[in-house]
Amino acid sequence: MSERTLILLRHAKSDWSGEVSDLERPLADRGLRQAPLAGAWLARNIGHIDLAVVSPAHRARSTWEIAEAELTEPPPTRVDSRGYAASADELLDVVRELPDEAHTVVLVVHNPGIADLAELLTGQWTPMPTSTLAVLSFTGPWSEAGERPTVVLATGRPPEDLRHRLGHG
Q1: From CA 2, how far away is CA 25, in angstroms rounded?
Q2: Taking the CA atoms of the chain, what radius of gyration do you get in angstroms?
């Protein structure tokens, strides 16, 4: 059985000052500072990522574009409209449809769905403020996500040093 790593990344802080639609809301200055820190943490602690699945919202796409620029080998990115304003169950459907050849996947979406998904998969509440990462692991095919024990390997908002939770420290 293959080990799967699901990295949940909540988009960076968005800018509420303009009069744009929720879908088009850009990142705030703080978000522009947060996103590369998330990418640097991923580069340092995860390394290879097989696929990124990103909400179509501008703030989620921008977060991932900035974060992935920190990676040595950015993965293919798939924008999935189901990631926008999704419930935990809707996000679980996205996860269960991931290709089995992808062992490490990052999902860049929104709250409350992303925090609810982490709880649904792990059985424990994981706060997901903007730019927070939660690294989850389970064994088996993606289609069985939520049916198998899932472990939280790391959680937090970079630049916090979470290496010890991944067994590097």
Answers
A1: 38
A2: 15
Compute how many other C-beta atoms are within 10 angstroms of the C-beta atom of residue 156. 18
* Two tokens, residue 160: 């916090």
pTM of the model: 0.93
Ordered domains of the chain (ranges, CATH): 3-160 (3.40.50.1240)
Rounded Cα–Cα distance for residues 141 and 99 (Å): 9
Q: What is the pLDDT of residues 8-28, one digit of tens each?
A: 999 999 999 989 999 999 999
Tell me the C-alpha distance between 16 and 123, whole Å: 32
CA dist., res. 123 & res. 168, Å (int):
25
Torsion, Cα of 77, 81, 82, 87 (10° steps): 110
What phi and psi values does residue 97 have, to the nearest 5 degrees?
A: -95, 5
Alpha-carbon distance of 113 to 10, in angstroms, equals: 10
